[in-house]
UniProtKB/TrEMBL annotation:
Gene3D superfamilies: MetI-like. It comes from the Bacteria. Residues 1-39 are annotated as: Disordered. It is found in: Cell membrane. Residues 1-14 have a biased composition (Polar residues). Keywords: Cell membrane, Membrane, Transmembrane, Transmembrane helix, Transport. Residues 108-324 form the ABC transmembrane type-1 domain. It holds the Pfam family BPD_transp_1. This is Sugar ABC transporter permease. It is a multi-pass membrane protein.
């Protein structure tokens, strides 16, 4: 007996149109590609959400501890605010009073002197020690750690107190200069003409951080350049001036930029060496900008005036940074530009 097979009529599956239920076609041309794009978008949203959740502590800290106080200080700069009463809007009076204040002008002069003198001396010491440590010697690891250690502890209050004791009247520095040079100034920290040099000495002593950066840059200078210069008869100074400095100029620029910004922000060591109570040194000899800002804001309760000073400092540092970036085209040599 034969078996009869009945063929049922078949119809091609039609894709759902945009108005049909589900709106995303399950069959037909393009359906799989659309499902893939939708899945990728959902996965991307989940990944972004996870990223924002991990970043949320940093975002909250930035908004509450950095951006928020900056916006508040910008508002306080145009107000009369003493930390206790409601701020009163006074417009530009804080800025006009600032420019007319002789102690403010003194703080600007002391800060500029400190930046112009202290920063180059610190970088020169860092580069000199880095050149010595770049040579092959025994115990290099020990010497690197020993020279870097002051950078870790130099900014602490305890070191500033010890430094003040060392340079005080009849202390070790005072006795040494009397015995060796016959000079008696009665202690550097008590003399308005000498106390600023003790502050610069403390800054130069903390050359460890830029020294490490200089040392890393020196390690990248090809030895073949020095060997070729020696064959041509170039001496030590010519090799340093024509090979070392151009090759490490990006590192030098980085250190100059960072140390200049740090010099403008000096506070703790100047305040402790100069003494508390709003003095900032005998005859305002260590009255750096941030020290006077602290005195006005927290000792005189003139928070509006201090906020105006803070924004002026920000503008000054921004201007100096812009000038440094503009000047790098003349003396900073990058490897990509040389190609």
């Amino acid at each position: 007996m034969g078996t009869t097979v009945t063929h049922l009529p078949t119809t091609a599956a039609q894709p759902l149109t945009e108005g049909d239920e589900g709106s995303v076609p399950r069959y037909g041309p393009g359906g799989g590609e659309r499902r893939t794009r939708a899945a990728v978008r959902r996965r991307g949203r989940r990944d972004n959400l996870a990223g924002y959740l991990f970043m949320s502590p940093w975002i909250a800290g930035f908004l509450l501890l950095t951006a928020g106080p900056m916006v508040a200080s910008l508002y306080f700069a145009f107000t009369d605010y003493n930390l206790f009463d409601t701020p009163k809007w006074i417009g530009l009076r804080n800025f006009t009073d600032m420019f007319a204040d002789p102690r403010w002008r003194t703080s600007v002069e002391v800060t500029l002197w400190y930046v112009v003198v202290g920063t180059p001396l610190k970088l020169a010491a860092a580069l000199a020690v880095a050149l010595l440590l770049n040579q092959k010697r025994r115990g290099q690891a020990f010497y690197r750690a020993a020279f870097y250690a002051p950078s870790l502890i130099g900014a602490s209050v305890s070191i500033a107190i010890v430094w003040k004791a060392i340079f005080s009247d009849d202390a070790i520095v005072d006795r040494a200069q009397r015995a060796l040079f016959g000079v008696d100034v009665g202690g550097w920290t008590g003399d308005p003409d000498w106390i600023i040099y003790s502050l610069v000495a403390l800054t130069v002593w903390q050359f460890g951080a830029p020294m490490v950066i200089f040392l890393a840059g020196l390690k990248q200078v090809p030895r073949e350049l020095y060997e070729a210069a020696e064959v041509d008869g170039a001496g030590t100074w010519r090799r340093f001036w024509h090979i070392t400095l151009p090759m490490i100029s990006p590192v030098l620029f980085f250190n100059v930029l960072l140390e200049t910004i740090h010099s403008f922000q000096i506070f703790g060591s100047a305040y402790i060496l100069g003494g508390a109570g709003g003095t900032c040194g005998p005859a305002d000899a260590t009255l750096v900008y941030t020290c006077y800002l602290y005195v006005q804001g927290f000792e005189n309760s003139r928070m509006g005036f201090a906020s105006a000073m803070a924004w002026m400092l920000l503008l000054a540092v921004g201007l100096v940074t812009a000038v440094l970036f503009w000047s790098q085209r003349r003396w900073v040599h990058y490897e990509e530009a040389a190609r």
